[in-house]
Design goal:
Blueprint lengths: L2 H10 L5 E3 L6 H9 L3 E3 L3 H13 L5 E5 L3 H15 L3 E6 L14 H13 L2 E5 L4 H9 L5 E6 L19 H12 L3 E4 L3 H10 L4 E3 L7 H11 L5 E6 H6 L3 H8 L4 E7 L2 E2 L5 E2 L7 H8 L3 E5 L2 H11 L6 E6 L15 H12 L1
Parallel strand pairs: 1-2, 1-3, 3-4, 4-6, 5-6, 7-8, 7-9, 9-10, 10-14, 13-14
Antiparallel strand pairs: 11-12
Helix pairs in contact: 1-2, 3-4, 7-8, 7-13, 11-12
Length: 354
């Protein structure tokens, strides 16, 4: 189905506004909505459902867009807001890890298998989107239900290309290459998707902990280790979309003040792995927020020389320290997936830092 067709059918049934968190399975629809200036990007799926709930209270028929990996984030507002207050929303959910489809990456196996079960337990009536007629089905179901979901399988929604033009000097791959040269042998935590894959390709190490799921949680995981390994340097490679998802971790880190903590945010103002949909980081000064949250030192780098200078200074200075690195969007072609299983990553990491 073309993104234009899906949009047209939703509008015929008076659906809108559209709010969510980007998903690669129907990234073309996100991009199409952005081209119309009709997409509201949310930091996480729970907030997306809450924004939609507010729109419903103002008389609209909101649509929430997400990947099934984010269902966990919206369960609380679904069960204690939408269902309790009889607020209505339509969910469009990319079904990663659908067991009837080609095997997906391991982070999607459990949720893929249990997606319908989770939605049913949360009183969300669900159907697979197979034709434009299913929009009418959802519209009819919302007369008697508070939240209805349409699941989208891989390949069902066609792509819609988007151009993103930023004029920074570095790619993410370039920046990670530089960071690696200053942090080799240190304990490193890397966030979801391409940050972890590129670090793995550039400098795989037993002391690297790669996250392939759990978007937005890398800072918290690293903090837990930093507090137990006070004599080790802890380096976090975060991303703008991931950090926005659980931005409150900055306050926790700033409050506990681990001196051995360097938090690097690689900010390309987009979700590069899902099709370059925009984040809201263009209007968010992460380094200034970190400072106000209690980080000891913060820096910003927009080119290679600034990055090198800031790394050299911050790695010699007691933390917690924060480094914002502005980079261009996009991914290096041919970057392979991490070949270690999640369990292997855990076991070798624990042995290495013991």
């Amino acid at each position: 189905m073309k993104p234009e067709e899906l949009y047209k059918k939703l509008k015929e049934n008076e659906f809108g506004p559209f709010v969510g968190v980007a998903d690669s399975l129907f990234g073309g629809f996100f991009n199409y909505l952005e081209s119309l200036n009709e997409y509201i990007p949310s930091a996480n799926e729970g907030l997306a459902l809450s924004i939609a709930s507010g729109a419903y209270l103002a008389g609209k028929k909101p649509v929430v867009l997400l990947q099934n990996a984010g269902v966990g984030n919206l369960i609380n507002p679904q069960t204690s807001l939408n269902d309790l207050y009889k607020i209505k929303s339509l969910l469009l959910i990319g079904w990663r890890g659908n067991p009837s489809m080609q095997k997906d990456a391991p982070e999607h196996w459990l949720m893929g298998k249990r997606t319908i079960d989770f939605l049913k337990l949360a009183n969300i009536e669900t159907k697979v989107l197979e034709s434009s007629d299913d929009i009418k089905w959802a519209n009819d179901k919302l007369k008697d239900n508070n939240t209805v979901a349409l699941l989208i399988n891989p390949g069902f929604i066609e792509d819609y290309k988007k151009e993103v033009n930023l004029n920074y000097d570095m790619s993410r791959y370039d920046a990670i290459n530089i960071i690696v040269n200053y942090t080799r042998g240190m304990i490193r935590f890397s966030t979801t998707a391409m940050v972890s894959r590129e670090l793995y390709e550039i400098d795989d190490s037993d002391k690297n902990f790669y996250i392939i799921g759990s978007m937005g949680h890398i800072g918290a995981i690293a903090l837990g280790t930093a507090l137990q390994k006070e004599n080790e340097n802890i380096v976090v490679l975060d991303g703008d979309g991931a950090l926005l998802m659980h931005l409150g971790i900055l306050s926790t880190i700033g409050s506990l003040k681990p001196k051995n903590f360097l938090h690097v945010c690689l900010d390309n103002e987009s979700y590069s792995s899902t099709g370059l949909q925009s984040t809201t980081s263009r209007n968010t000064n992460f380094h200034k927020i970190a400072l106000e949250c209690g980080y000891a030192n913060v820096k910003k780098a927009t080119n290679e020389e600034e990055l090198k200078e800031n790394l050299e200074e911050l790695l010699k200075t007691n933390g917690p320290n924060f480094l914002l690195v502005k980079i261009n969007p996009g991914n290096k072609e041919g970057t392979k997936r991490i070949e270690l299983s999640p369990e292997e990553i855990t076991k070798r990491f624990m042995r290495a830092i013991k």
